[in-house]
Amino acid sequence: MQKKDLSLYIHIPFCIRKCGYCDFLSAASTPEERAYYVRVLQKEIRAFEPLYNIYRVKTVFFGGGTPSVLEIRHFSRLMEQIRESFDIDENAEITVECNPGTVNEEKLKCYRTLGINRLSFGLQSADEKELSLLGRIHSFDDFRTNYTLSRRLGFDNINVDLMSGIPTQTIKSWENTLKKTVELAPDHISAYSLIIEENTPFYEKYTEPAGRRLLPDEETEREMYRLTKALLGENGYERYEISNYALAGRECRHNMVYWTMGSYLGMGPGASSYIEGKRFSNPRDMQSYRDYVRVAYSTYKSCEPQSKKASMEEFMFLGLRMSRGVSVSEFERTFGESFKELFGGVTDRLIETNYLSLHEGRLSLTDKGIDVSNRVLANYLLP
Ligand code: SF4
Fold first, then answer.
1. Which of 31, 84, 325, 349 counts the most CB atoms within 10 A of its CB?
2. How many Å lie between the centroid of ligand 1 and the Cα of residue 16?
3. Residue 345 — φ and ψ, nearest 5°?
């Protein structure tokens, strides 16, 4: 029997210290906590044994938190467990998110030996003032040194995460960040806008009038977005998703699985999974997660597939995030429904007002639509 495709997401909820804007599930940790956590993760991997013969893993993504915080011996044990358990495709894309302040030659060499073939560096900004304001633990030089080292060690697929909309950031400083990044020629650049999340120190500070004044206004943010697309485009990076740019053939295969509703299994506290139409999430707090691991597989088995309505909405929300957009005929094939009947009216209106375009049967956001993407996508909620 031909095996089906699966992606794995492994959450590492540890960081050296918390950045002021971050609401991801991550915290500082001791070596003992990290060692214990890896053992729990191994148990969760083993719990999914019934899937080993059904799926072949095409992508693995270690995200966080900061996966590069893990000691070499812990990371190796984890990777060995994954390889021992799942059938990992020989051409699998295997990514590790790295904080530039937490890698060194020994660690990077170990990643190479373990078959990690893609690195994702969280740089965020090339401006020292902005880095320190964000609470990052690294400088631009730390990043440049480790990036160059990674290239020297043979990593030929590297992403750099950048952030616009940082307090006090100007168009000039954002342009400088983009230019300094492009000079290093990474294969992929993710450029996200800062979102001020509740329950973070940034929320306290930047939702007050004095703090709000330090944030770039909406028009400046749009200008930054336009600049990103233009500057990266001139340098060979194509925008293939609202916030993601890649050199030809270097799109992140793991993220494409999310946006095309492929199957993925998330491991670790708070990790989400989507397998065969079943969407489920692990408990977020460590104690509940530890208890859950014992029943992880049975929880998945007893989970109901999501409704057709939810799947159709997701198909539109996720698909329209990609520059190639959604195929109307694929929608109809997948769901056995008439696109025109469900979404014809709203789609015609969004095309007329230039928020969407329809080209060779594919519907995608225009630049005007991307500026207000959340509002455009909300039109695809079904009654
Ligand atoms: S390094 Fe990333 S995950 Fe860790 S606190 Fe900072 S933003 Fe959050």
1. 325
2. 9
3. -60, -50
The atom of ligand 1 lying closest to the CA of 23 is 8
Q: Is 308-380 a CATH 1.10.10.10 domain?
A: yes
Buried b (16+ CB within 10 A) or exposed e, 130-146: bbebbebbbebebbbeb
148 within 8 A of 119, measured Cβ to Cβ = no
- How far, in Å, from the CA of 97 to the mean position of ligand 1? 11
Nearest CA to ligand 1 atom 3: 65
pLDDT, one tens digit per residue, over 196-238 is 999 999 999 999 999 999 999 999 999 999 999 999 999 999 9
95-112 per-position pLDDT tens digit: 999 999 999 999 999 999
The amino acid sitting at 154 is: G
pTM of the predicted protein model: 0.96
Fold of domain 4-259: TIM Barrel (3.20.20)
Mean pLDDT computed over 186-196: 97
Cα–Cα distance, 112 to 270 (Å, whole number): 28
d(CA 222, ligand 1 centre) in Å? 25
Q: Whose CA is nearest to atom 6 of ligand 1?
A: 19
